[in-house]
Amino acid sequence: MDKKILEDFFKGHLTSEERERVLLWIEQQGEGWTDAFIKDNWEQPIHQAAPGLKELMKARVMENIRAKQPAPRRLWLYIGRVAAVLLLATAGAWWWMHQQPAAPQWYTVSNSGNQHIMLRDTLPDGTIVTLNEHSSIKYSSAYNNEIRTVFLMGEAFFEVHHDKDKPFIVKAGHASTRVYGTAFSVSAYTSSGQLRVGLQRGSIGVIYDTAHAEQEKMLKPGELLICNKQDKTVSIEYQAPEKLGAWTTGKLVFFKTPVEDVFSQLEQRYDIHFNHDHGMANKTVTATFDGVPLSKVLQHISFVWNIRFEQRGDSIYVR
């Protein structure tokens, strides 16, 4: 008997005449045919797939017999038919479950920032990712099958393994960055009012939401896309390519960075807390600091914007 016909049988897709032919075939097979058939066609005997199932089926068959009470001369024919239907339905369910794709597993790589170091990791395809403090990425077990997708929170620098047939996609906030083989940086801290994507080498396309529709912008090396989360305006700035990944060495790198975002990064790096009002609009910082104490950074900001700082314990008050 063709396996497809039997599948249609337990799914209820056959006509009454076709069902009769299947039942007649079942009657002709003799005792024990079910285990052999299931083993050959569904890879696992029914008694292994579900221990105790035969006893349960027998009980159900007897319930159907008591409920319907067919004529005595057709009693055993009826039992055989009901048992066959139950066995085939169970085998079909077993086969159907084995056809369903397994739920993907998720893997997370995170840098808590407790040690104030950059975390460097290699993804399954050979792509190298460097995570800034308080940052993490997540990817599924389907990564590297057809599309390489990672989800980012915080800031990361990617050195993508080239594979023209498997695009690499970074999803962060309301933007997606699609690449094939390149080096670029994405900053998407939830505390920041901006999302930034900078290209060091190669070519990438950034898909982002605007106030009206979704758009895509292709970046060239040295270009930095800055998306304002509040009004969804987008600007393109030029930054020296070597500066775009400089933070991966532990440097503090600010490029037209809003002062409030600078404070957030300083809080992470120096374990302090800034107390300030929200009158910092339009104030930005462009500077690079390498291994300097917090006081040097504050002196620079104070000089540029005439801001006074007062430290009390682990809190800094902005005047």
Structural notes for this entry:
α1 crosses α6 (75-99) and α5 (53-68) crosses α6. The strands form three sheets. Strands 1, 2, 3, 4, 5, 6, 7, 8, 9, 10, 11, 12 and 13 form a 13-stranded mixed sheet that branches. A three-stranded mixed sheet has the order 15-18-17. It folds into three domains: 3-99, no CATH class; 104-249, Jelly Rolls; 251-319, 3-Layer(bab) Sandwich (Phage tail protein beta-alpha-beta fold). The radius of gyration is 33 Å and the shape is elongated. The protein has helices spanning 3-11, 16-29, 33-42, 46-49, 53-68, 75-99, 241-244, 259-270, 294-305; strands at 106-111, 119-122, 128-131, 135-140, 148-159, 168-172, 175-179, 183-188, 194-201, 204-209, 214-219, 223-228, 234-238, 252-258, 273-275, 284-289, 309-312, 315-318. The chain is 33% helix and 32% strand. The N and C termini lie far apart (86 Å). It is an alpha+beta fold and 319 residues long. It has nine helices and 18 strands.
